[in-house]
# Entry
Amino acid sequence: MKRIIAACGGIFLTLACSAPSQTTPVTAPIASALSCERAQQTCDCPDGFTTGLQTCDAATGLSPCSCLASAAAAMQPSAATSAGASAPAAASSQVPRVCSALAGIGSCDARSFRAEELPASILFVVDRSGSMACNPPPVQTIESCSAMPLAADPSKPSRWEITVDALNGVFSTLQDNHAGVGLNFFSVDNACGVNSTPSVGIHDVSKPQLDALAAALRGISPRGGTPIVGAVTLAYAHLHEEAKAPGKRFVVLLTDGEESCGFGGKEDDKADLAAAQKHLLEVEVQKARSVNIRTFVIGAPGSEHARGFLSQLAFAGGTARTTGCAHGNPESDVGDCHYDLTQGGDFAKILGDALADISGQALSCEFPTPIASGRDINVQVTASTQNAAPLCLPYDARTCDAGANGFQFGKLPDGSDDLSKVVLCGPACEQVRHDPGSTVDLILGCNAVLQ
# Structure
């Protein structure tokens, strides 16, 4: 069980030293995918749960989504105690032990609450357009595939066959890893059709789910157009649905081409295609980000001319690979915020590496922080072994995939810190994952003692 500890001093007195409020709302952006049809209705909150309420006004439409503080709503007081720490007058529980580096620091006196690590829900949205039947370079050039979307060498694996193997591989690594996975394809009608109901719904990755995912992939062959905008928009709609996907929520888009359907389904209507892409980037992605849905993007060989759009989609979707990546012009062929696999190399290997990297990020050890906790946070881990002493983790600002070992804050799309959650990286995360009985404590109200 994971716990969050809130300080009983300074600006945290009201938040931490009284019982968690079940009625005090915080404001989240409007979940505008919902219509204003009822006087009051539920809405998605930034923690990924449909626990908020919004009201309908005849003049102004839906109000902002009023959400319970994500950490406080899930917390229950503990009965642990710490020598020398005094509980607030209104509280019956006392504080747990703190790690040695924090012992004796008055501002770190705290009350303990329990909170679960955020689960991950991942919806893979996979391009099965006709060009996926081609061999990847160097066996077949992009120009050859564009002229005739058939494998130049049927004895060699196609883009689709390589994609199927890579997806099955990454799905197996997600088994029993606190993650739910679903799968959808585009198109669904060999033209421009899309569907908000996935071919395989999002469920925990068990043996039956792996079998369902593999069967869905076996039953598909490459045909049809490339309705990226429609497929991603409806993927967001599915993740918005109540109880479909709690916690951390991700769309993973894999495509080998450019948008070819737009609003009207006409590949030669360039203005319509551009308008559809603009709508996705400026409206739908923003709505998804407002309720904590992030979008990973993989551009397979064939997507060279869509680099600008795919890069901007990844950047706006909160998964830019670096803070300084190229983005901003969706109509160009320049951009590298996404996983751009068009630069050559062994397609099977680089696709497998990209999917492994994405799954690692989706499974990152994330814990929500109480509202208004700010940067005054320390993190300690206590192993499940008897009488284990809590161990403080250092703050490490390096990215998790660059060797960080400790904790850091989450990241917003612009690269700044997201103070609503902390992320454990490297061996610190592995320790928690390999010891399900361990506890993670967030100590609020004093500066990080380990840097």
Summary: Residues 34-68 form one domain. The two ends are 26 Å apart (CA to CA).
